[in-house]
Every structure is written in C-alpha cells, then in structure tokens.
Design goal:
Distance between the termini: 66 Å
CATH topology of the largest domain: Aldehyde Oxidoreductase, domain 4
Radius of gyration: 26 Å
Number of helices: 15
CATH architecture of the largest domain: 2-Layer Sandwich
Shape: globular
CATH superfamily of the largest domain: Aldehyde oxidase/xanthine dehydrogenase, molybdopterin binding domain
Length: about 675
C-alpha cells in the first residue's frame, strides 16, 4: 500500500508539535571542499562542520538552503525535486533559498558540472532523515547526519518516482520572463549611488553635471553619480601601452625540446613516418553571457564595528567574502555576501572584480554603490578562454588500429592565471600542471603507445575558466584527428570510433550506437551537393558521455548552415530531463559557435571587442533542429551534464570536411582559411 503524500496538512501537524521547527544538518560531502578548486585554495572545514540543508518551519513550510549558485543550469529545481521525492510531498511545499555567507559553511565554487554529482546524495539524505524522524514522531529540533543507514527513494529513478525523472519548469521562470527582481543589478538600496572604476591610467572625462570623481585607495580613479545614465558614455578602453603577445606556436615549442608537463609519457618513436601529422589552432574566446556583471556594496559603521555587505552574482560567494576581507583588512565574519541568481556564468563569475570596485567606491562615498558593467567592460575588463595550439601525430597498423599517438599542445593558463594570481606566483606554476589546460586531453581511444604533453604560456590578456575549460579545444583537436585517421584508413568515421575506443568505455560506445540509430546513420555520405554530416564523441571528467552528429549545408558563398544536430548523452540518473536537455542544447550551439563565429579580436596585446558586433555569437536564426536522447545504465549515479556536449565543435568541423573535402584546422572556420 502506497503511503499518503506529505500534504500541507500533514506537514503542519508535524511542525506544530515543535514550535522551533526542525533543522537537518547533513554531513558535508568531501567533494564539496575540493583542495584545488577553480580559485585559490580554501582550507578544509573543521571535522565537526555541518551544513544546515533543510528546515521544516513551524508553519509547515519546507526550506531548502541551496549549496550551489543558480545560473540557469537548473540545480535549484533539481534538488527541490529530490527533497519532494524523499518526503513524498508536493513541490509547492518546498521553498528554495540561496543562502548568504552566514547561513552555511563554505563550499567550493559552482563549477565543473559538479553540482548534481556532488550534492544529490547529501540533499537526499537530509530529506530522508527528516522523513524518518517525522515517521517516528521525534521531538528533536535538530537532526544530525551521523552516517546512519537510510533508504534513499529519489536516487533509484524509475516510473515509481513522483518527481525525479519528471519534467518540471525552471525555478522562478515566471519571475524571469516578467522581469521580477532576481539579479544583482536589480538590487536597490536607499541613497544608492552608481559607480564606475576607470582602468589604470585612464583619465576621467570632462566635468559632467552630477558626476563626481574620486580617488581610490589602490591608486585608481572612480566616478560616482546619482543616476546611472552618464556612466554609460564613459569609454573603458584600456590606455596602457601595447604589450607583446607571445606566439602560441606548438611546432616551435616542440622543436625546442620536451614540453613542460606530461599527462602520459609512453616511449614513442618520433623519427619514423606518421600516418597523420596535423596542427590545430583555437583563438581567444569570450564568455559572452547575457547578463553583464554587477554588484552593490554597503558599509556599516556601528561604533568600532565595521562591516561590509555585498550583493552580487557569483559562482563562489565565499571566495568573494575572503577576497574582500583580505583587501580591506577585515575578518571574514565582518563581510556578508548575498549571492544573487546569475544570468549566465560559464566560469566568468569565479573571480572577484565588480564586487571589489563597488566596495572601494562605497568606502569613499560613505553610501551604498552599485557598479554595473557594460558589454564593453565585459569584453575589456573580463578574462577569457586562452588560445591554444596543438600538434597531433599518429600511426596506424594495417587494420587501422592506432599504434602510436603523440599530442603536444600549448595554451594560456586556465586555472593558474594572471587574472587570479600575481606574476611571481604564476611563474611558479610552470612546475605544476594547470588542470584546466589539461582537461580532456587524454583521448578515450586505445593506442599501443601514447604521449600527451603540453606547456602553459603566460599571456598579457587575462585568461581563465571558460565552459568546459580545456575540453573544448582538446576535443576539437582529438576528434578532428580521429576523423581524419578514419578517412586515411578508408573506414566509416562512426564505425572507426567504435573499433578504436578503449574497451573500458562501454557507456561512450552505447552513446555512439544510439546516436547512429537516432540520425539514421548507415555510412557517412559522400561529399557533394553542398551537404555534410559529421560525428564526434567524448567523455567529460570521466563521468559523463556524449556522441553528436551534425548535418550542415554549404551555401554558394561557402557559408555554413547548421541543419540538424543529434545528441545522445549519458550523464547517469536524470533528475529533470528538461533541464538536462536545455544544458545540452546550449552546449551544442556553444560548440557550433566555436566553429562558425567566435574569435575574440586582440590588438597590440589588448582586447579589441566592445559589442556583439565585434564578437558575434550564434543567434536564434542559426538554431538548427535538435534531437536529444538521454540514456544511462541501470543504477548510474547523477553526473554533470553542463559541459559534455562541447564535443559538438568537432562534429560540425567534421561535417564541413565531409561536405568540402577540406579539413578545418583553425577556428573559427572560414571558407578562405587554409586547411
């Protein structure tokens, strides 16, 4: 007999017995405190640290304190579904709260598609512990997770689930589409000024009515106004002298000898002839998120007690707190950060910039200050995906099997970047592999001998995490090379992948087989008629698998038209299929953008983009028909879904090669570019 749903009446009956309500303290998962996050390391919390995940309030409401930042990936509705499943209650009974930095202990940045992988189980345990406590009629106001056995209803999936695996709309979607205040830029405080910090060396404009110039403690200059309007006209172009841009030339680097870092170092004969010897290059790329950054800061002086309060859209509220505390000589408990919903992150919100600007201006003004970056500021003052240069050499045996694989590449820093580190510290990182640069560089294919190595190059333009980190550029190079090897071996590229994938990657093989069925792939069509079809596949962080097929047309002027994309992805147990499909759609178009349009212009060592006219991204009219299927083996745990589909970049370039006979070796593609 099925237990009755946890109605509001039943919750009220339970909560009414305990005037203070009930709080569940869940054991913090070890993965929540990564010793090497995307930002400078925070120490591990004390062993007794507990996170207050879930509260049953006296009025019968359930309150979930979200341990992740919400930036459109749908983690808030996904974790809410898990709680509802465990408690067998309606979603409407659960309120999701984005907690400030006083409400929970520090957790690592919201990065790397780790949110569901890391937090599905602890949140499910918190809800299950509350369920069992209520069934027993317990009177305790605190429940602590001591590792006691508990049945998790939500993580087995299946048709029996009421909420998990079901389509549910994005949290607060009605507020988003009707313009309700959600974002940092919506914050309004009494007496608030609008501020702008000029780049180092920039001269303030001629006097403008209502515009006040100020000198900041770090030597920079700022502007303050009672109205945001005059600030929008200020040029943010950096005035510093031109800086030399190092040449990311993998061939020159390999001629100089061994590259800095080895990911795999099998002995490969470098003198014998190669079946394939190809170079691939990718440019600088911007995050181009729809919501430009903003922050509001307010100082409080109560006698000798000084406190700083900040509202911001960030991927790591605790890193903001620690950075501001260090900058202003405060203890961390004197800085309160309110994280707001983010209108697109993609790694851009991992470093503290607009928050520091708002705090500096508010300190001088003695009033709350809002700093709102323009699109120009996003390009000029932000950090970007570094360029990379790759050389892949491979040998095949008579059956087309890979006997030798040598991938050397160089890139600007992703994690150990000047955007977050002083120059002296970045110099030291030459001794340590940058994990962001390395991500996705080890191919899923079997080879008798494999050598993968790279070097990090210090660049004058700030670089940093960008969707998938190194997985996008590395996937482009690897999957392009595999496609060309299939052609050189005279084999179908999809069947060639199945034949050469490492036997341990059965889940990736399942994705390939299923996407072939979905797209009706029998054999890659011959070149001609302005049509091309390409395939690519990949693994993200050893836990999420995807295979993509892209159909394209070539116009008379050589332009590429995306016609259709097919994707089969295995990210384990799916909590909300709509949210996962939305992430995959974004990935597919993001990968296509890498091929078709995205190149951040750099002139004299400076960013030279100010609007989307200078940095075009795919728009709605470029959106192809998309078919997505989600698969997973029985019992698979939830894994990250937000970056796996980046492998679409190679599906599109391989389709171009099939249509034109010209291999794409430099991004973005141009009909006039050399192969």
């Amino acid at each position: 007999m099925t237990a009755p749903a946890m109605s509001r009446r039943r919750l009220l009956a339970h909560a009414a017995r305990i005037a203070a309500g009930i709080t569940v303290f869940a054991a913090a998962p070890a993965c929540a405190f990564n010793p090497l996050p995307a930002l400078p390391t925070r120490g591990m919390p004390p062993a007794e640290a507990r996170i207050a995940w879930l509260r049953l309030l006296p009025d019968g409401r359930l309150q979930l304190l979200l341990p992740r930042q919400e930036m459109g990936q749908g983690i808030s509705i996904g974790l809410r579904q898990i709680v509802a499943e465990e408690l067998d209650c309606e979603l409407e009974r659960i309120e999701v709260v984005l907690p400030d930095t006083t409400s929970i202990v520090p957790v690592k940045s919201t990065v790397g598609s780790d949110s569901m992988k890391d937090f599905a189980e602890p949140v499910a345990r918190a809800a299950a512990l509350l369920r069992e406590h209520l069934k027993r009629g317990g009177a305790d106001t605190e429940i602590h997770d001591q590792g006691q056995p508990v049945i998790l209803r939500s993580l087995h999936g299946g048709e029996a689930c009421r909420h998990v695996g079901k389509r549910r709309p994005t949290e607060r979607i009605a507020d988003i589409v009707t313009g309700k205040p959600l974002y940092a830029g919506d914050t309004q405080l009494p007496g608030m000024l609008f501020g702008l910090v000029l780049p180092a060396g920039a001269e303030p404009p001629e006097p403008v009515p209502g515009l006040r110039r100020v000198e900041l403690s770090d030597g920079r200059r700022g502007l303050l106004s009672d109205h945001p309007g005059p600030l929008h006209a200020i040029s943010l172009e950096r005035p510093e002298a031109a800086r030399a841009m190092p040449d990311l030339d993998i061939d020159a680097a390999m001629r100089r000898g061994r590259l800095e870092h080895r990911l795999r170092g099998d002995a490969v004969d470098t003198e014998a002839g190669w079946t394939l010897d190809r170079r691939y290059d990718t440019p600088f790329a911007a995050h181009a998120q729809i919501e430009p950054r903003s922050a509001v800061a307010q100082w409080h002086q109560r006698g000798a007690d000084v406190q700083l309060e900040v509202w911001t859209g960030t991927q790591d509220a605790f890193f903001v707190r620690e950075t501001l505390a260090r900058q202003f000589g405060l203890s961390a408990d004197r800085v309160l950060v309110h994280p707001c919903r983010i209108g697109g992150g993609f790694g851009a919100r991992t470093i503290v910039r607009q928050e520091l600007e708002a705090a500096l201006l508010a300190e001088v003004a003695g009033r709350p200050v809002k700093v709102q970056w323009s699109r120009a500021a996003e390009f000029v003052n932000g950090f970007h995906r570094p360029p990379s240069s790759h050389r892949i050499r491979a040998r095949l045996d008579g059956d087309g099997r890979i006997t030798d694989w040598w991938h050397g590449f160089c890139s600007g820093h992703v994690i150990f970047t000047s955007a977050a580190m002083p120059p002296w510290m970045q110099m030291v990182t030459s001794l340590v592999k940058d994990p962001g640069v390395a991500r996705g560089a080890l191919p899923p294919y079997a080879a008798a001998r494999m050598r993968v190595e790279f070097s990090d190059i210090r660049l004058p333009v700030d670089t940093g995490p960008w969707r998938g980190l190194g997985a996008g550029p590395n996937g482009f190079a690897i999957e392009s090379a595999i496609d060309e090897l299939a052609a050189l071996a005279g084999q179908d590229p999809l069947q060639y992948r199945l034949a050469n994938l490492d036997p341990q990657h059965e889940r990736l093989k399942a994705c390939l087989r299923r996407v072939a069925d979905l797209a009706g792939w029998t054999r890659q069509p011959r070149m001609g008629g302005g049509f091309g079809r390409g395939v690519a596949c990949g693994i993200y962080k050893e836990s999420s698998f995807a295979a993509v097929i892209a159909d394209i047309g070539i116009a008379a002027d050589g332009a590429v038209n995306l016609r259709r994309m097919y994707c089969v992805q295995d990210s384990g147990l799916v909590i909300n299929p709509d949210q996962v499909r939305a992430q995959i759609e974004g990935n597919l178009l993001w990968g296509a953008g890498m091929v078709l349009t995205e190149r951040l212009p750099i002139e004299d060592g400076r960013v030279a983009a100010y609007t989307f006219a200078d940095y075009p991204i795919p728009t709605m009219d470029a959106m192809p028909a998309i078919d997505i299927e989600l698969i997973a083996p029985p019992g698979a745990a939830p894994a990250g879904a937000g970056e796996t589909g980046m492998v679409a970049v190679a599906a599109v370039t391989n389709a171009i090669a099939a249509a034109t006979g010209r291999r794409v070796s430099t991004l973005p593609y141009s009909p006039l570019s050399p192969t």
